[in-house]
């Protein structure tokens, strides 16, 4: 079942492992979201925000040993909903963002759909 609230949304994936990034793009398509690409570094993620319209972002917590906190801060500043994905646990999520949806790898389709919907709803209620 596809949730109409996220259908057609454009999502950026921020992930340093190419296979995981491709799998996440496939999962996004399964839940009706259009992946606009994958950023492989914090700098690339921030640059891509200026290059392509993005409605949602899926952030790996750690990108090649670097925290994604600067990306999360920029997303918050721009009002773009986002979720975190981690292979470790919520303790790796930057403390200021622990109120955001967090998924543990490997990600299941239903969990992704629910987290994206929660991120969109939270963003709308903050507006």
Count of domains: 1
Task: State mean pLDDT (0 to 100 scale).
Answer: 91
Q: Give the biggest beta sheet.
A: 5 strands, parallel
C-alpha termini separation: 28 Å
Q: Roughly how many Å is the radius of gyration? A: 13 Å
CATH architecture: 3-Layer(aba) Sandwich
**Spans where pLDDT lies below 50 across 5 or more residues:** none
Q: Indicate the CATH class.
A: Alpha Beta
How large is the count of helical segments?
A: 4
The topology string of helices and strands comes to: EHEHEEEHEEH
Keywords, please?
127 residues, alpha/beta, Rossmann fold, 5-stranded parallel sheet, two-stranded antiparallel ribbon, 4 helices, 7 strands
Could you explain how this protein is built, in words?
- The protein has about 130 residues and is of the alpha/beta class.
- The protein has a single domain (about 10-110), classed as Rossmann fold.
- Helices cover about 40% and strands about 20% of the residues.
- It is built from four helices and seven strands, in the order E-H-E-H-E-E-E-H-E-E-H.
- The protein has helices at about 20-30, 40-50, 70-80, 110-125, and strands spanning about 10-15, 35-40, 55-60, 60-65, 65, 80-85, 100-105.
- The strands form two sheets. A five-stranded parallel β-sheet has the order 2-1-3-6-7, sandwiched between helices. The chain has a two-stranded antiparallel ribbon with strand order 4-5.
- A hairpin with a 2-residue loop joins strand 4 and strand 5.
């Amino acid at each position: 079942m596809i949730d109409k609230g996220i259908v057609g949304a454009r999502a950026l994936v921020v992930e340093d492992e190419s296979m995981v990034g491709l799998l996440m793009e496939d999962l996004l398509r399964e839940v009706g979201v259009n992946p606009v690409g994958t950023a492989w570094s914090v700098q690339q993620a921030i640059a891509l925000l200026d290059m392509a319209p993005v409605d949602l972002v899926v952030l790996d917590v750690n990108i090649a040993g670097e925290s994604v906190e600067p990306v999360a801060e920029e997303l918050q500043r721009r009002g773009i909903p986002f979720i975190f994905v981690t292979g470790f646990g919520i303790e790796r999520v930057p403390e200021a963002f622990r109120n955001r949806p967090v998924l543990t790898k490997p990600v299941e389709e239903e969990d992704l759909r629910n987290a994206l919907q929660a991120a969109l709803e939270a963003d709308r209620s903050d507006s």
